[in-house]
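REQUEST FORM: STRUCTURE PREDICTION
Request ID: SP-0412
Submitted by: Lab K.M.
Chain count: 1
Length (residues): 304
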Amino acid sequence: MRSIWKGSIAFGLVNVPVKVYTATEDHDIRFHQVHAKDGGRIKYDRVCQACGNSVQYSDIDKAYVSPDGDQVVLTDADFAKLPAAEKHEIPVLEFVPSEQIDPVLFDKSYYLEPDSATPKAYQLLAATLERIDKTALVHFTLRQKTRLAALRVRDGVLVLQTLLWPDEVRAVDFPSLDEAPAPRPQELKMAETLVESMSGDFDPGEYTDEYQLELQKLLDEAIASGTGKVESAAAAEPAEQPDAEVVDLVAALQRSLEASGRRDAEAAPAPKKAAKKTAAKKAAPRKAAAKKSTAGKTATRKGA
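STATUS: Completed
RESULT:
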């Protein structure tokens, strides 16, 4: 890995020199556009709509257009005048309980490596965060953009996770949820049983990106064929899909439990039918013995 930023964490009067590394990487296969007729590469040219000339990236500024149509052009010098946190400092703002940070706010993750011959301050901060089980809120400026970020520990290494600002998270208002009926106790019980049957410890190594694996296989086969194209194959018949709307939710839960191999006998609605059959069998002798009696007819109706 190659560091993308160097600076220090300002922890009170203690400075913790660090290097910043991108913690994640994209494994998606990259494509570029080509002309379908001859396979020629498609390139893009930055053309000025005013003069019609091609423009180099170094000659491009940024412009803002207001809702009324007024345009303002800003240069790099203009952006440099704006207030921002120190470019090479990560100031700690406060420490908050980790569970109070909604996961929807997390954006990008970065690893922090100690950038000192004696990383005692780094180890002290990491050990303190683990001991108190809290997350440090910090300011982090990268590429002229200041973000709020969470500083925590992962496997003994400080991790910086930028956070979205509150107004960047959309508010939701779904009328269909307001009108939806509450789940019935039987449905809740069966759903909880299903969840229990599907529960386990999280191991990310057990999951793979099947789409990317199949895509790579497709590309490898095309390269091996020497044609540079994918050989056409017979289209597979689409699998039967269940109805979009589940008419009987309890029945669907019951089938899910049976498929998972853990059926809850108490939650199943079937025993009611069995009880009726048992009652009918017990009532049969009484019906034969008192066939002409009024009381017997009453008993027969009750047992039927």
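NOTES: The helical segments are 76-80, 120-132, 175-179, 185-197, 210-225, 249-260, 271-289, 294-303.
Reviewed by: T.R.
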